[in-house]
UniProtKB/TrEMBL annotation:
InterPro entries: Acyl_CoA_acyltransferase, Bact_Acetyltransf, GNAT_dom
Coiled coil: none
Superkingdom assignment: Bacteria
Residue span, N-acetyltransferase domain: 12-173
Name of this chain's protein: GNAT family N-acetyltransferase
Lineage: Bacteria, Pseudomonadati, Pseudomonadota, Alphaproteobacteria, Caulobacterales
Keywords for this protein: Acyltransferase, Transferase
Length: 173
């Protein structure tokens, strides 16, 4: 269990991912290449896996950025990126919740998010924020079903162009 995130109800184990896990992370990201092609315009590359592990907002300590591997039967079936106390002490930022496409649609994402929300609340969070790309209507519908509401829009600049994103928040507690 990473930092108090309990995903055992979803029949998952959690593990902090780091530099030694880049190749395994890239292999998992490749099983989700449809997401990366939709969002970034190209399949995942090794540099993308390294950036997912290492990148964090300026001023956020490494200890407050967690990249969590979600495992079932030892295999990586999901990834959760969490920024604790960002952008303010009462908010946690959910950078990514990505599940193996074969496991989507059966309630696993909702179970993982519920566990993450309980964990955040137990550590003083009162809000979770995230962004969703406008061209990803299934993700937008999922997050709305989880209780998120739009709080703004922005343009995300990528090496292949740009995306319009919806900034969303879920207030609780």
């Amino acid at each position: 269990m990473v930092g108090g995130l309990d995903v055992t109800a979803a029949s998952l184990a959690s593990q902090q991912l780091g530099d030694p896990d880049i190749d395994e992370l890239l292999a998992f990201m490749s099983t989700c290449s449809g997401f990366f092609e939709l969002v970034k315009g190209y399949p995942p590359e090794r540099e993308d896996a390294a950036q997912l592990i290492q990148d964090r907002p300026e001023g956020l300590s490494a200890a407050r950025k967690l990249l969590i591997g979600l495992r079932r039967d030892g295999g990586l079936v999901g990834v959760l990126e969490v920024l604790q106390g960002y952008p303010d002490p009462k908010t946690w930022y959910l950078g990514l919740l990505l599940l193996d496409p074969k496991l989507r649609g059966g309630g696993l994402g909702a179970a993982v998010y519920a566990a993450m929300r309980r964990w955040a609340a137990a550590h003083g969070a009162r809000r979770i924020q995230l962004v969703v790309q406008e061209q990803n209507p299934s993700a937008l519908a999922f997050w709305r079903a989880m209780g998120f509401r739009e709080i703004g829009r922005a343009e995300q600049t990528l090496r292949t162009g740009s995306n319009r994103v919806l900034r969303m928040a879920h207030d609780f507690g």
